[in-house]
Amino acid sequence: MAQNYIRTLFTDAARAMQDQAGSRSAYARMEAGGEGSPDLLGKKEAMFLAARDSFYIASVTADGWPYVQHRGGPAGFLKLLDGNRLAFADYRGNKQYISTSNLQAEPRVSLFLMDYPNRRRLKIIGKARIVDVDDDPALVASLTSPDDKPAVERIYVIEVVGFDWNCPQFITARFTEADVATAVAPLTAELEQLRSEVAQLRAAATPSNPQQGE
C-alpha cells in the first residue's frame, strides 16, 4: 500500500475505528515517511495501465454527491505521462457532462482499474483538469487516432496524488470474449481436425452405389 494514498484518505474518524479494530499500528507504519509527497507510478503500474481497456472514475458534484462513470477504449487508452500524470481522450457521448462539470467545482477524482482474469485492481486518486483539444494538439495526437469516431471533445489530465494495489480476496475472475477465444483456440483447432478425420472415415466406409443391371 502506497503511503500518500492512505495518508490522504485516512481521516481521524477512520484512524479511531482502526484503533478499535486493532489495525491502527500496522497502518501507522505504512503511513510513516514521505510526508506530503505523491505516490509515484512506476514500471509495474505503467504495465498494468497499458493493458487496461476500461476503468471507473469517481467525481463529486457541487452539492457533494459522489458520481461514478465508466470509461472504455482500446487497451492503453489511459496513458501515463511524464510528471506522474495520467491522461485520456473524452469522446462525444450522451451530452450529460456530469463528470466534466463536477471538475469545475472540485478537481479531486478517484479511479478504479480492474484486471478480472488475474484478480488484480489498482486504485488511484488525483486532481483532474480539462484540456481543450485546440490548446494542446500534440497531447491530443498522443492520445487519439485520426480515425477515431465519435469526435474527441476534450482531454482529461490527472495529477496523481496516490495509488493502492488492493486485496484480491473477493475479486471474481471474469473473462472477455477475446480471452475466451484465445483460451479455447487449441481446442477449436483440434475439434476441426477431428471433424475432418471423421468425415474422411465416413466417406471411406460408405459403400459405392451398385451399377445398374447387376
From TrEMBL:
Q: Which residues form a coiled coil?
A: none
- Ranges for domain Pyridoxamine 5'-phosphate oxidase N-terminal: 46-135
The secretion signal range is none
Q: Which domain of life is it from?
A: Bacteria
Task: Please name one Pfam family that this protein belongs to.
Answer: PNPOx_N
Return the InterPro entries for the record: Pyridox_Oxase_N, Split_barrel_FMN-bd
**What protein is this chain from?**
Pyridoxamine 5'-phosphate oxidase family protein
- Provenance organism: Parasphingorhabdus flavimaris
Q: Which taxonomic lineage is given here?
A: Bacteria, Pseudomonadati, Pseudomonadota, Alphaproteobacteria, Sphingomonadales
